[in-house]
Amino acid sequence: MSSTTPCVSPQLARSLAARLRDATAAGEQLASFAFGEDAPTPGPELVDGDELDVAHDFLLRTLGEISDPVNWEILAATVPGGGIGLDDLAAQLQRPRLAVTERVNALIQLGLMSRDLEHDRVCASPAGDGLFELIRELDAEIARWLSKRRRAG
Fold this sequence. Notes:
By secondary structure, this protein is mostly helical. It has one domain (10-33, 49-152): Winged helix-like DNA-binding domain superfamily/Winged helix DNA-binding domain (Arc Repressor Mutant, subunit A). It contains six helices and three strands; from the N terminus they run αααβααββα. The chain starts with 9 loop residues before the first helix and ends with a helix.
């Protein structure tokens, strides 16, 4: 029997795990800096046995951010093609650029988007693409079940 769940995309799981791996590495690099003589050295970012708790916390935060309707619109606007300019995205959403930038930054922090500062463009990351597709697939499946039940009733 396989240990993978049919609706879980291995690529999505790997992409989200990569974000946590990067956060762990950044925290450990920070801990390696010299601190004052009297200051305690920070503990490890992740210890054996904490992986499931960290993954659960991160996944719930990610789902919370993406469930916001404006954040969903931002992700949806960046999934197809090679991304979108921030000015164009703000115009499309009919929101101030700064408001959109702050939301984009929150999605970048979760590893769902990336930003090309040189060209002022944002695009969905592989994790963002995977999460977007997973939610769209679930939307379609739920709609099919609702339609089927309505016709049967």
